[in-house]
Amino acid sequence: MIDVDRYLAVLGVDRPAAPTAEALWALHRAHVERVPYETLDNQLERPTGIGAEESVARILRGRGGYCFHLNGAFAALLAALGYDVELHRAGVQDDEVEDPAGPGGDHLALTVRLDGERWLVDTGLAGGMYEPLPLREGTYTQGPFTYAMTPSAVVPGGWRFVHDPRGAFAAMVFAPEPVELSSFAAEHHRLSSSPESGFVRVLQVQLRDAKGVDMLRGCVLRRIDAEGTHERIIDAAAEWYAVLTDVFHLDLGDVDASARARLWHRVRAEHREWEASRQRATTL
User: Fold this and answer.
1) pTM greater than 0.90 (yes/no)
2) Which residues, including other chains, have CB under 8 Å from residue 219's CB and lie 6 or more apart?
3) Which of 5, 101, 140, 251 is 20 to 30 A from 12 via CA?
4) Residue 279 has pLDDT above 80, yes or no
C-alpha cells in the first residue's frame, strides 16, 4: 500500500472525488513540475529497486528517479485513485526513423482509459509531455514544444510518440500489451549499473513546466523555452549543489559531505572528459 495523501501533498494536489480527466491533467502537470527525472543514485553508486512502494517512498523524501521509478509510482497512485491504468513495454529511440527492432524495454510507458478513450500518460519521459496525449494520430502543442502521435510502423497495435526536435531524444515507441512492473527489473539493473549505460556515465536531472524544461547534464545547465535554448556551465561545487536543490527541488539530506565531495569529483571529471572529446572532434 502507498500513502496516497502524503503523495498528493508532495504534488500539491487535493484528493480528487472521482477519477476525472480534469484531475488526471492536474496530477500529471504537478508530477512533472515537482518530481524530477534524475539519475543521482547511479552516480552515488546506491542501488535502487523499482517496486512501486519503494519509488513512492523516494518521492516522499524529496527525490525522483527515471521512468521505472516515476511511472511505476505514478501508476500506483492513479490506480489507488480509481483510474484504469496499464503499464507498457516501451523504448526510447534517437533516430527519426523507427527502429525495426521495436521497443527495447528501456522505458516504461503508461496508458489510461478514460471516458471511452485511451491516453498516453508519462511522467518519466525526461523533459517530455506536460499533459496526457490521446492515442490518436496527430500533432499536439504543449507550451513551446510540438509533439506527434502516430501508430507504430513496426509493432502491431503499438504507438510512437515523436518528440519536438529540441528534445533530448527523437521518439518513444510502446507496445499495446499490458505488462507488470517487475518485468523491467533486468533492464533497470543494466541501466543503473553497467559502465556502458548513459544513466551511469552522465548525471541527468530534468524538470518540465508549462513554459519549457530545465535540464542538468553533468555540469551543463540548460533551459529550453519559447525564447530558445539558454546554457551555462556550473564549475563550482557549491553552485552545482544549489542548482540541484533550488532548481530541481532535490532533497539531499541523506548525502553527507564525503559523498558530496566524491560525487562532485566524479561529475567534474566526466565533464572534463566530455570537453576534451569535443575538442578532439573539432580538430579532426
Assistant:
1) yes
2) 233, 234, 235, 240, 267, 268, 271
3) 140
4) no
Beta-ladder partners of 117: 114
* Residue 258 vs residues 45, 179, 265, 266: alpha-carbon distances, Å: 14, 40, 11, 12
As a dihedral over the C-alpha atoms of residue 166, residue 167, residue 168, residue 174, rounded to 10 degrees, the angle is: -150
What are the tens digits of pLDDT across the range 161-215? Answer: 999 888 888 899 999 999 999 999 999 999 999 999 988 999 999 999 999 999 9
How many of the other CB atoms lie within 10 Å of CB of 105? Answer: 17
Contact predicate 66/38, CB 8 Å:
yes
